[in-house]
Fold each of these.
Amino acid sequence: MKATVKWTDGAMFVGESGSGHTVVMDGPEDLGGRNLGARPMEMLLMGVGGCSSYDVMSMLKKSRQKVVDCRVELEAERADAIPAVFTRIHMHFVVSGVKLKETQVKRAVELSAEKYCSASIMLGAGGVAISHSYEVLEFEPS
């Protein structure tokens, strides 16, 4: 896996993945940025959420669950000292669908946390306390 990150100006950088996708990262105005993109640590947090969500959805699809929506709400705490590393991350999955089996959602979240999500497992091995929760909602068409 490869990527490049190129400085543009101020506190703005453009990252390009090995697959050719780009993302803008920027800092707040008081630190020389223009607030035109996510902060690098926000990108890391969203990456963890994306990695785990991918796992959860993959497992739910394989178990033939009729998922209509899935989101993960992430909340993180960082150390007060520099480096301001993550010390805690909580991931709350909200999965809605038609007659979803709660046991399947629970299992998917647990397997992602314990076995499949490379990003969260890597951060957890580095000392970040990572916790998970979930809720299952019945889809009601409008």
Amino acid sequence: MKAAASYDSDQLLDAILISLDDDKAEEVVKINLRGKSEMGDWMVIASGRSTRQVSAMAEHLTDKLKQDYGLITKTEGKDTGDWVLIDTGDVIVHLFRPEVREFYQLEKMWTPGSQDVLAVDPSKAP
């Protein structure tokens, strides 16, 4: 296990984005929270096609973060798979079924009219 100081939030963000890409997450966006919120540096929002995919992505991601970074994440909603929240401390991850994501529209709530919402292009992943 790595010590907490052996990585920064940007490295953690990269690992999260790679994991979501590997699991075929859709419409992945990252939102820079620095200077906007004390809850973390980044927010990632992504969709899965079904409750099964959303739950599987969440489980895979939490396992990867535990194995690679020694992080025990706070996770809510994995059993239902409609909306899963994964809190790493530095990066907040929201995984949705498309209908639930459309209903809550977190991107609009956090960055109305802002350029801080960045769609992630999987072909340019590190």
Amino acid sequence: MADRRSSTLTKLGLGALAFNSAFAIYNSWGDAGSVGFVLAADVALWLLFLCLRQFEQGVGRRRDTKIRAAVWALTTLLTVMFASRVAPLMPPPVRVAVWVMAVVTAAGGFWAFFLN
């Protein structure tokens, strides 16, 4: 049975995420879109962490497929979220490149998780 305790490195990483998120929310207070973005990204990252932990425990093939789908959906969501924040800041050719990379990343993840 896998050890259910979190490692020190995991705790430090989640602590850094919490601190950084609190700081970002503090600096963005008054901008509901930015605060919502930080909160949504945090929720997606926490869910991704929980899914990866379940995936590492490897309980069953059917459950494994559902966890892979959740991991792919969450990583695609995060990719699209960050691309949507970065692309508008770039010149038009780079903006297109950001979106192309986001689509290629999502498609590559789908291929790696489900077709390979």
Amino acid sequence: MVFLWAFLVGGSICVIGQIMFDVFKLTPGHTLSILVVTGAVLDGFGLYEPLIDFAGAGATIPITSFGNSLVHGAMEEAEKHGLIGVVTGMFEVTSSGISAAIVFAMVGALLFKPKG
């Protein structure tokens, strides 16, 4: 049952993104931004963590989880260190994912020759 809920929730998030492309004719940048902000707002209201508990990877894999991570880290560090914790908390939680993306992109660029 866990796999079914992960598929349905993750698939629903992807369907929403595809509708934003096809129906509303939004650019990928606009769609990405809206989904990240949606995840951040849901976490700000305390609604994204229950979604993660319910759907597992269906809620942690889509881009909405990045917004959740930013706000979650900022709120945790703000409780410990005040206003400066808001800024440092966002980078502390998401730094490993961003670093991995940069490293993998560099390795991919070195291994494969772009066409064009």
